[in-house]
Each structure stands twice: as structure tokens, then as C-alpha cells.
Amino acid sequence: MPGTVDDFMNxxxxxxxxxxxxASQLHDRFMSDQPGxxxxxxxxxxxxxxxxxxxxxxxxxxxxxxxxxAKAPPEERHGMLTSILQSLSGGGxxxxxxxxxxxxxxxxxxxxxxxxxxxxxxxxxxxxxxVMNYARTQQPAALQQAVADKPWFLxxxxxxxxxxxxxxxxxxxxxxxxxx
Length: 180
Fold this sequence. Notes:
- Helix content is 68%, strand content 0%.
- It is elongated, with a radius of gyration of 17 Å.
- It has 180 residues and is mainly alpha-helical.
- The longest helix is centred in the C-terminal third of the chain and has 21 residues, at 159-179.
- The chain is built from 10 helices and no strands.
- The model is unreliable at 92-104 (pLDDT under 50).
């Protein structure tokens, strides 16, 4: 398990294998607020994760997101959906707040996406995946903020997603270091 960011970047730059356990621990370090983990930049990781997720085919992301949301405790699921919906609605979270792509209400998003409800507590896992996929493709900053605020979500998407996010983060960090 890499002890420093340099170890992390060298490992990915060198094409070394990262085990599932290493990936999980690296994810935790990037998302940690502990003083010893400050060199692992949460915002860079959230940005890299969002970029990686943005490149996935819709069906692959939808399936992973639906599975993650099905496994999430209700309070985590509600928090994630509320965060994304508030971002999509301009931060207010009310049904009258403006929304991207010409939609004027949360109920407008629900209608446009064919959701069973605009209430995050009432959404099933398919509804949740549709909301997240919409954010991923239409307002990636909303998903990025949710990933940064809700570290469980990326992990719940599964190890291949964590590995992809870590690889993207390493690429970004190596690139920014070499251009400095």
C-alpha cells in the first residue's frame, strides 16, 4: 500500500498492479480528512472520478449506479439524491428552483427522466440511477460535488470504478507535476 502520494503516482506510472485492498485503502486516503492524508487531494480525486465516470457508456454507469443505490442504507441514498437534486435545481432544493436543460422544477426533471417520484425518499434504485446519469452527462459538477461529499458512493459503484478513478487521478497528478 503506497504511503505517500509519490508512491501512489510511481505505482500507477510504473504500471504496477493495484490490489482490491490497495484500491480501497487509497480511496479512503483520498477521501480522508486526517492530517496524515492531506497530501492525497480529495478534490483532484473527485474530479478524476467524475471524469472517469463521464467516459463510461450510459448502460454501464446506470447498472453500477442502480446496484450501488440498492445496497446503500436509506439515509445515505437519500442524502446522495438530495445533494444531486439540489445541485440540479440550482441549489435550492425546492420544487420551484431553476434546473438545467430548460427544466424549471424538480418535478420537471422527474417527468423528463420518467421517474416514479421527484422525492428522493420515494425513488427506487432505477430512478436514482437515472438522476445520477443525468447529472453525470448534463451537469458533471453536481456529480463531482456529490462524490466529494459522499465518499461511500464511488466505493459502492465497485472496485473497477474505484480503480478507474485512481488511474485517472494518478494521470492528472503526474501530468500536473510534469508541467510544473
